[in-house]
Amino acid sequence: MQALTIRPSQSYDADALAQLAELDSSRPLSRPALVAEVGDEIWAAISLHDHRVIADPFRPSGQVTPVLAERARQLRDAERRRRTLGGGAFGFAARPAA
Q1: Please, which residues have CB within 8 angstroms of residue 56's CB and are 6 or more apart in sequence?
Q2: What is d(CA 31, CA 27) in angstroms, rounded to the nearest whole number?
Q3: Can you name the residues that pair with 54 across neighbouring β-strands?
Q4: Is the pTM of this model over 0.85?
Q5: What is the pLDDT of residues 36-76, one digit of tens each?
């Protein structure tokens, strides 16, 4: 298997994501989304909004969707921690200047 890349979807992915949704007999994903790219092809994607996954049924995408879902979970957990700890960078709230 070629290298797997998990990355945020970009505006230039719109056509590939629409085609992927059609192959999967699904409606297009809500953005933001992450994509699983093998080589230069998107095999699967997950919405960070509603956690719905679409995948290419003609590829062994069952091997990449668990990795994609785990990365999405990590990002959601990190965002929750950031909000809980004050919303600053790395979880630290900015202190007003004296």
Answers
A1: 20, 23, 24, 41, 42, 43, 44
A2: 12
A3: 45
A4: no
A5: 999 999 999 999 989 999 999 999 988 899 999 999 999 98
3-state secondary structure the chain: CCCEEEEECCHHHHHHHHHHHHHCCCCCCCCCEEEEEECCEEEEEEECCCCCEEECCCCCHHHCHHHHHHHHHHHHHHHHHHHHCCCCHHHCCCCCCC
Query: Contact, 36 vs 7, CB < 8 A?
Result: no
Can the peptide bond before residue 96 be classed as cis, meaning omega within 30 degrees of 0? no
Residue 88 per-residue DSSP state: S
- A 10 A CB-CB count for 54 gives 26
User: How far is it, in rounded angstroms, from Cα 17 to Cα 44?
Assistant: 9
